[in-house]
Amino acid sequence: MRILILGSGGREHALYRKIKESSHARKVFVWPGNGLIPAEDRVRSKAVADSFTELAEFITREKIDFTVVGNEAPLVAGVRDFLKDRFPGHPVFGPDALGAQLEGSKAFSDDFMREAKIPHGTSVIADSLAAALAALPSQDLPLVLKADGLAAGKGVSIHHDLKSAEEKLKEIFDGRIFGDSGNRVLLQKFLHGTEASLFALCNGREAMLLPVARDYKRALTGDLGDNTGGMGAYCPGEHLTEAQKIYVHEKIIEPVLKKFAYRGLLYVGLMIRSERADDLAVVEFNCRFGDPETQSILHLIEGDLLEYLLWTDDAQPQNFPLIKAGSARLVPYRRGSVVNVVLAAKGYPGAIAKDIPLVFPEPSSAELHVTGAGIESQGGKLLSTSGRIANVVAWGKDRDDARARVYAYLEEFSKANSTVTDRLYWREDIAASV
């Protein structure tokens, strides 16, 4: 098969690596990819969400058999709907535009969860600064503010006093820091507990659960600083019991399947309050693989990822082994643990330096690899292009072993890049024992 992956981050690089292992994969392209992906496998062009016509021309010209949508923007813009209309029978990994609204609009998602009686943080939805400020005094602290639309993981802020919340609301509505994505804002009750990310592969009728991961959203060591797209992750996360997985499958994922005939990857961000099966709440839905969790999950799962992805669009029968847990079905994964630490430009998610020249030492083990994100190859040199630059991912016999391998590599990386390390940053506490 000839496969096209849409996206440029560490998530898409991880998908590329894993799909290339499949015996079915003859050629794998990434549009646009990043500087750590071989040039011959990259499609250098404008963002797909800006040019579906150019995408269709590429699929025709290169005889693409399967399109895997990695990031959310094309899905929300309706890329699946477009491709299904243009190429009937062409398999696509990802939901239609309606299903993608679970991520594309926090208000849409909130309305659906309320209707389906899915546990989640109670919200007030405001479509103007005046409405938001009027609702503010009645909110409990700490308070979560969420921009309604897509904001690259940066649209959520937590406030411990009303003054800072008021200032943030003014930045969103008057300063338009999130553009149209901030035309509406959710004022939401803060949820206490332990976060976990559960991914479900869905074919419109059934779901297969991937191993649970845990990611780290705050920018700085000690879980401080602003929210980011993610600074690291580990898998498997130990936070969900088998009873809770069954509960999530029956009470959260199945309602999504029934309402939207959902296909592709459903990301369920959870807050776990205790080990009781129903003592949890949904923090967010995403319509695609999470980044940085994917880099950890895909390095751990067993089986042919390409077959799993094709199954979501009825292009592959379910003839691969799964693990049963009550009504839920789980994708098998190997023993051990995987840790991923994000290498970022200092200052992310705020102002950063770009074009930082980088050198990546050759990993000493096949169980450790580096996936690119905001990085490009120019004139034989690797230069940073955005806040999250790369991911260091390692398997170990347990979480501490995997973590030690990642941070040992980062120490080696630091020495190789000693002239620019003052412009780089990574959290020191990813997967640390608590």
Give the tags.
D-amino Acid Aminotransferase, Chain A, domain 1, 25 strands, Dna Ligase, domain 1, four-stranded parallel beta sheet, 434 residues, six-stranded antiparallel beta sheet, alpha+beta, Rossmann fold
Description:
It is an enzyme of class 6 (ligase). This is phosphoribosylamine--glycine ligase. Keywords: ATP-binding, Ligase, Nucleotide-binding, Purine biosynthesis. This protein is α+β, with helices and mostly antiparallel strands and 434 residues long. It has four domains: 93 residues, Rossmann fold; 68 residues, ATP-grasp fold, A domain (Dna Ligase, domain 1, 2-Layer Sandwich); 135 residues, D-amino Acid Aminotransferase, Chain A, domain 1, CATH 3.30.470.20; 88 residues, Glycinamide Ribonucleotide Synthetase, Chain A, domain 4 (Alpha-Beta Complex), CATH 3.90.600.10. Helix content is 28%, strand content 28%. The protein is built from twelve helices and 25 strands. Strands 11, 14, 19, 21, 24 and 25 form a six-stranded antiparallel beta sheet that branches. A four-stranded parallel beta sheet has the order 2-1-3-4, with helices on both faces. The termini are far apart.
